[in-house]
Structure formats: C-alpha cells, structure tokens
Amino acid sequence: MATFHLHLVSDSTGETVEHIARATLAQFESVTAIEHQWPMMRSVGQVEQVVQNILENPGVVMYTMVNEEMRQALQAACRRHRLPCISLLDPVISFLGNYLGVKSKGQPGRQHNLDDEYFERIDAMQFALIHDDGQAPWDLEASDVVLVGVSRTSKTPTCIYLANRGLKAANVPFVPDVVMPEELLKLDPNNPNYPLVVGLTKDIDSLVQIRKSRLRHLSDKEDTGYADMDKVKEEVVACRRLCAEHGWPVINVSRRSIEETAAAVIKHVEMRKTRLQEKN
Questions:
Q1: Domain end point (choices 48, 83, 111)
Q2: Which residue has the higher pLDDT, 275 or 95?
Q3: Would strands 169-173 and 60-64 be described as parallel, antiparallel, or unpaired?
Q4: Looking at per-residue confidence, does 256 or 116 come out higher?
Q5: Rounded (to 5) percent helix, strand, coil in the chain
Q6: Helix (H, G, I), strand (E, B) or coil at 167
Q7: Are residues 194 and 141 in the same domain?
Q8: Measured between alpha carbons, how far is 64 from 106 in angstroms, rounded to an integer?
Q9: Strands (DSSP E) found in 150-195
C-alpha cells in the first residue's frame, strides 16, 4: 500500500479542502494519505511558515485560498521546492466566472457567514439533541423528519448529520413490547402538516454482530436477547410491519455510510413534498 504526505492548506476552516481531498482519495484503494491540516491562513507570512513545516514532511499540497497574494506565495514556494501543488477551487471558480460573466469576491470563508441558514442549522442541531432517542415526543410535529428504527441502526448520527443540513430531525427507538408514542403514530405521511417518518433497518447478521460488539465493549454479560439472532429478527420484522402499517418508507442502512443514509432520507422528504404538491 502506497503512503504519502498530504498537506491541506486553507484560508478558512479547511472543511472544503478536507472533504474534496478525502472524496478524491476514496477512489484509490491502495493509497494511504498522512494528512497535515493547515487552516486559517491569513497572511503571506503564515503561508511561508507553513511551507517550512511542509518541507519537514514533503508531499502533495492541496489548497483552497482565494486571496491572490497568498496563493501566489504558496505556488511560488511550492515551485521553488519542487512540491506538487494544486488549487481545488480554481477550475470551478474560473468556469462559473466565465459562464456568468462575474468576477468572484475573493473573500475567504464566505460559506460560513452568519446568515439565516447558519442559525437554522444551529437550531436544527439543538432540536436533534433535545429529541434524541424518543425524548420530548410531544413536540414531534415540529420536526421536518422523524427516524424510527431498532437499536444500532444509526438513528442518532443520521439525525445530527441531517441537522447540519438544516433539517430538524428527531428519532424514536423501536423497542419490543414498548408502546410507541401516540404523537408518533398519528403522523400521517399524506398530511403535509406533519413531518415525514422514515424507518431505518439493517440486515440481521450485521445487526447481531454490531450488538455483540457493543455488549463486549460494555462488558455486559446479561442474557437479555439483545444480540440473539431470533429475537433480533423478530424485532426487525415487527419494526418493518409498523412502518408498513403507517405507510412510512424504510431505508436499509446495512451498506450505507451516515452521509448516504442522510441523503436517502432527504430524497424521501423531497419526493414526498413533490408528491403532495402534485396531488394538491
């Protein structure tokens, strides 16, 4: 397996360069990158200092910087020291600038402005925490989406990710022999005034292995049936039956990342919105 040093330089938080770099590297299975993060570059002097740090572990330099003076300083230093260097935003900014006939602002961190969308995400994050694991069921109608599933189907992390996308997401666990909240059961998928309920499920074998691992981690040897194959199967089937009875869509998360599950949830929300709009 090939290993190399990857230096991610940014004049903002570094999230953009990190996400693009990792999405690209995911296409190379036999390669491992040792990441070095260099965010919040604010001056040519800082760029020059970072270059000296990069020389201690030479490798590929990827950057997202919009200040022209700082960009030129980094590019010149990389040429001088023969470091491979690439801007990840230049092609897109150049393309859009030519298409729109508008010059870019060249202002770092514009995607993190404290606008209404930013505060909506913060509100959604607080909502997800307050309504995690079946808490505050009386307020479920205020959700954009409610996730229902058996234990270990990634309900909480998916809600947190959805909150970061600005959606108010709550989750309610399906527990055998425990009555589901009345506030949940009345959420009609055909009523636009209610949030969409989405069921999350997982393959039985995968679910059993994850639960066994969790029990080992907790040093819990009590035989509760939590990781028993037959009981887990009954649990999953019962949860699916509940979703079918109420017309809630179900997503199998077995081979999905949190991001992929969230994307599937958002797709269901948008499809439902379109369907109800066409119906009316």
A1: 111
A2: 275
A3: unpaired
A4: 256
A5: 50, 15, 35
A6: coil
A7: yes
A8: 11
A9: 169-173
Q: Is 165 exposed, middle or buried (0-12, 13-18, 19+ CB in 10 A)?
A: middle
**Span 98-120, mean pLDDT?**
65
222-234 pLDDT, tens digit per residue, is: 557 899 999 999 9
Residues 89 and 144 grouped into a single domain? no
CATH number at residue 89: 3.40.50.2300
CATH code for the domain of 236: 3.40.50
- Please indicate, yes or no, whether residues 251 and 146 belong to a single structural domain of this protein: yes
Please tell me whether residues 123 and 91 are part of one structural domain: no
Number of domains forming the structure of the chain: 2
Nearest Cα neighbor of 108 from 78, 69, 51 is 69
Rounded distance between C-alpha atoms, residue 134 and residue 196, angstroms: 16
Residue 149, helix vs strand vs coil: strand
Is residue 8 located within the same domain as residue 97?
yes
For residue 228, give the nearest of 240, 212, 213 by alpha carbon.
212
Nearest to 249 by CA among 180, 198, 186: 198
Q: Strand order of the sheet with strand 85-87?
A: 31-38, 2-10, 60-64, 85-87
Instruction: Please check whether residues 9 and 132 belong to one and the same domain.
Output: no
Residue with tokens 């409610």: 146
Domain range for 263 is 116-279
Across the beta sheet with 169-173, the strand order is: 169-173, 145-149, 196-201, 250-252
**Do both 131 and 64 map to the same domain?**
no
Given 48, 80, 111, which residue is the final one in a domain? 111
Q: Are strands 145-149 and 196-201 parallel, antiparallel or unpaired?
A: parallel
Length of the chain: 280
Give how far Cα 40 sits from Cα of 14, 108, 184, Å. 7, 9, 44
φ, ψ (nearest 5 deg) of residue 205? -60, -45
